[in-house]
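[audit] Reproducing an earlier prediction to check determinism. Same input, same settings, fresh worker. If the tokens differ from the archived copy the diff job will pick it up downstream; this log only records the rerun itself.
[audit] input (366 residues):
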Amino acid sequence: MAAITLENVSRHFGSVAAVDNVNLNVDAGEFVTLLGPSGCGKTTTLRMVAGLEQNTGGRIAIDNQVVSDAGASFFVPPERRMLGMVFQSYAIWPHMTVFDNVAYPLRIRRKSAQEIAEKVKTALRLVEMENYADRPAPALSGGQQQRVAIARALVFEPRVLLLDEPLSNLDARLRTQTGDEFRALQKRLGITSLYVTHDQGEAMALSDRIVVMHSGHILQIGSPEEIYRRPANRGVAGFFGSPNFLPSKVQACTQQPDGSYLLTLDGPGWVGPCGCSSALAVGTDVLVMVRPENMRIADKASIGAGEMSWTGPIVQSIFRGTHRSIIAETPAGRLNIDVPSVHNPAVGESITLAADSSAVWATPAN
């Protein structure tokens, strides 16, 4: 049974469709991330689930109970949806202590003082903030405020937790640490979570599934590895990192045991095998995605039958600390490759680049 169901959900502002005919099921206990650039519709989708925006088309259900049906003019207000929400700004009240911030959702529900004390203590313990209960909210660091916001969202035991870019105000190191802590907490509690971010690395590290959105539409839904390694189209592939895209034509196509297809490709100055999600006719134009981190500098003699290869001179080399970014000019065009930073081939040196067929992926050129 899906914990969250969106059926043909849309949100129009006049003639503009911020969200257009979105369908999504989030299973109980699942962590699903809505990912995309600014203006893609991800936050509007989250706000419609929360009841902070009203969908102009379609239907939304939580735990199999309809909370909004545009066709029937039915709408359950946000306070009756039993949802916890963590905002980008955390929305921590500076005039309250940590305890009072977390207790607020229980007080407006008129719970007893004893129940409030017990549940606030439990929620603060979950986020390892029980020793800060009496501290004024302004005296907390950004990471601590984020934990308080999560505790407040969890204290009344919501059916679903909604999070709108909750880590974006933290620095890079703290964002990674806090994200890992939250993911561990979410797994331990088994609470259904719908998360919004534009940060690809964050989405990959936290999610069971990722929903890639663009211009109000869903481009692809899948596990982080599936989205990264087997994108449905160039739009999805290009949203993650800076992959190389190589035009080529299909020479042969055979189905694999896992249901995918292995193509034999003919590109400018190269031939080789490549995976694809669908059967493609001989002669079809395709784009081959090769990520810089999945390529290596190789000797021509060491290249195997299951690899693609390209040869050309280095035109740029940039030291980035953890790795070195190299650009080589090949018959297929300029190719980016990331190598360990201890490698330092000279600009002008001719190199051969290789990639295994399992690390490249083809999509139709259109």
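[audit] rerun output stored. Observation attached for the diff report: The two ends are 36 Å apart (CA to CA).
[audit] end
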